[in-house]
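Predict structure. Chain length: 284.
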Amino acid sequence: LSVFYKWVDDSIFVGKWQMPPAKKLKKQLFSFDDKKYSQADFAQYLYKTQKKQPQKDKVVYVNNMYKAYVDQEILAYEDAKLETKYPEFGLLMKEYHDGILLFEITQKKVWDKAIKDTTGLQQYYEKVKYNYMWPQRKEATVVKVKNIVDDQSAKQLAKQIAEWINLSDMTSSTLKNKILQDSTLLVDIAREKFVDGDNALIDKLHKPGEMTQEIIPDESGKFNLDLVILHRIVDPEPKALDDVRGHITAEYQNYLEKEWINELRSKYSWKVNDEVFKMIKAQY
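Prediction complete.
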């Protein structure tokens, strides 16, 4: 080790130290078990770990680095032997390793595929969509108007809206523009499908063409008008993929996992260790 006191110069404190020629680095510094460490090994360690730092006594620096290097190698050696020296720890590490491996393979074969394989997801949805049905619904237009000056104006507006809605060429946007001729009003119009319980006013309607309304005073003294018209009764039908994407994706993942397991079982021989299985079952 003492030769390093001469070989190491101030350049190591600025990260520019160069190793001596290999022919000068052949002597053994230390060993344990069946592994030997030479001057070349320590020189390589010094070279790789050098960095800019305050200058210090080179003998102290070399001794400290040598101790750090020996400690590092002993710890690495012990770490490599842990599973052999402590079988239970080895089993735990194997379980941990296998668990990570299974997670990565499952993620690739099942979880990511279910999300990225949009074609496969769509095809699976087509097979099972009748398991995800809407009940009978009502398609209706809901008109909400706020900031009406008084009750009488609200009633007149409701009558006018009813007449406009019955026009054959009346669209939601055209109807909204007609109502907004009074620029002080706040208007929201939506044509949607509703199940029983979604909207109390729509629940009162049973035949296409029926209409009902509700006029409610607000805290400011103005009035709000809610008016609905029923267009048609919608028979039960499958929900769209976007409506059940979360459920379908989870179900598709289960399907892919089962298919993958069946593929593995048909490709490789396998056998359940009944004794271990019973032991695990008893624990959980």
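Summary: Strands lie at 28-32, 35-38, 133-134, 137-148, 186-194, 211-217, 223-234, 237-238.
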